[in-house]
Specification:
Blueprint (H helix, E strand, L loop, with lengths): L3 E5 L3 H14 L11 H9 L3 E7 L2 E11 L5 E9 L8 H15 L4 E6 L4 H10 L3 E6 L18 E7 L19 E4 L4 H7 L1 H20 L4 E4 L4 E4 L1
Parallel strand pairs: 4-5
Antiparallel strand pairs: 1-2, 2-3, 3-4, 5-7, 6-7, 8-10, 9-10
Helix pairs in contact: 5-6
Amino acid sequence: MNNLEVRELITIDEQSMARAVFDEVWPVMGGGTEVTPNLMQAMVHNGSYLAGAFVDGKIAGAAFAFPSAKGELHLHSHMAATLSQFRDAGIGSALKMHQYSWARQEGYKSIQWTFDPLVRRNAKLNIVKLGVDLVGYFPNFYGAMPDMLNAGDESDRLMARWDLTDEAPLIRPLITNIPEGSIRIAIPEDIVTLRGKDPLKAKEWRMNVRQVFMNALKNNRELIGFSDNNEYILA
């Protein structure tokens, strides 16, 4: 997209644009905000990452991350969102690549973040386009979440680790030939829509994927990629 620009958001007015994106994507029941203005200002002032993606001068997405020294010096990417009218326009990828370059320049070893293992779009982006590794599965990681997008479901999350060693990230092609002995973990086409139409079926998916993933990681299985049939492949 030629008219796409990604840049840091430093001032309080700029930060408010990012918060508006987050609150539109994750509306809080009864009103409210995902990140309060004073907290965001304090974190950005003290070295956290906040960037916005703009199309024709209008904000289309935003990403927010903070430093962490747990395990290794890394940037923890807490929130990344794209407004619905800009979905599938490369906004998420552009934000991540900007974050990749920024974190390398700041001396971080990696970027880590959580994502819902059942959201197919995010899984493909993270594993195929960005080439992340998976370092853990955490059942109900955030507990009950107040936003309407996640309400009624348990907040299971995979922890992704994005290595910053190289100037550009590893790209993994979709796996078409599944290695013998691999574990295949299928996920639904659209868990958000399914959660609204059939909560019991959505919960069944959640519990099944949780059990298979946790057993696989417990037995030292490692992610090798994502299949052309929308499955995680662990070997």
